[in-house]
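Q: Predict the bound structure with zinc ion.
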Amino acid sequence: MLVLGIESSCDETGVALVRTRVQGVPELLSHALYSQIEMHQAFGGVVPELASRDHIRRVIPLVQEVLGTAGRTLAEVDVVAYTRGPGLAGALLVGAGVACALGAALGKPVLGVHHLEGHLLSPFLSSDPPEFPFVALLVSGGHTQLMRVDGVGRYEILGETIDDAAGEAFDKSAKLMGLPYPGGPHLARLALEGNPAAYALPRPLLHSGNLDFSFAGLKTAVLVQSQRMVAAAGVVRFENLPRENQADLAASTQAAIVEVLLKKSLTALERTGLQRLVVAGGVGANRDLRAQLDAACAKRKVRVHYPELHLCTDNGAMIAMAAAMRLQSGIQTASTVYAFDVKPRWPLDTIAP
Ligand code: KG4
Ligand code: ZN
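A: Predicted complex:
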């Protein structure tokens, strides 16, 4: 069965073609991505209306590119999958509308996929896919969750953020430092030159005894610290400080976020007794987080799986893959009701198994 997947929940238009198999992990045939980041950078963040309009421009050429690369035609597609939520309503509607229109025109069923399930299952696109059950650390721009995953569609949330997501903490701190949007990768690059112990920033909820996160206070602490540094140096803006001082604050911020993610992940592994950790979502691309998780898990004989670096952030491959895995495992069938009812807010543990 050939599954065409369309992702349009935020600022990336992604399309992919995946083939289900009788046994084993479905196979990725081709994928293509257009990132709108440059367009939104002028505004310091995603402008939803611009995002929707750009998805409209990109999605059909990307579908043609993906089919061309795989040497397939539209008529061969069996199911059209799309991101149903969560995400920006207008942006989601573009992907859902195009998927349903294609489905109706081809007489093929459609399947609305949960964006976070896409991230969660994205390590199955790697050459060394995980096996169930596992603990998942889902760290994206909008979500931070620890989950117990027993199979496709069998997700139990163990803990989650009560305010900002880890990606948001990276992005908001980076913005305070005058770095471009999205700040996570820029902050991580600057942090390479800095001392992670230079500033004692809070590790929110580190000793809370549960698996929840809170990152809103960290952003305030970064703001206060940056203001202090600016005042002490007698400069106008953070960007005017000597680069090593900027790097020290970036490294200290990253260290605070990574330590909390690391400690909570280890606690989740201990509590569940599971020996496998899957890390997914944009922040999963962070090299410091990967290095620290790898080192701590190696000591505990825990296997860690990541999506390939270029599939950590939003893409169509993870949406086609999640749809293919749901179909292949028999927990869901695609539908010929072309009602593109998107869900901008959609808790992962409320989706049908
Ligand atoms: O999963 P994703 O592409 O989008 C959402 O579904 O939200 O994640 C985007 C987030 C952004 O906050 C971005 O700054 C962060 O992932 N990110 C990183 C890195 N690469 C992307 N954060 C820290 N270090 C990175 N290398
Ligand atoms: Zn995402």
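A: Residues 10, 119, 140-142, 167, 170-171, 182-185, 188, 281-283, 285-286, 313-314 surround KG4 (ligand 1) (CB under 6 Å).
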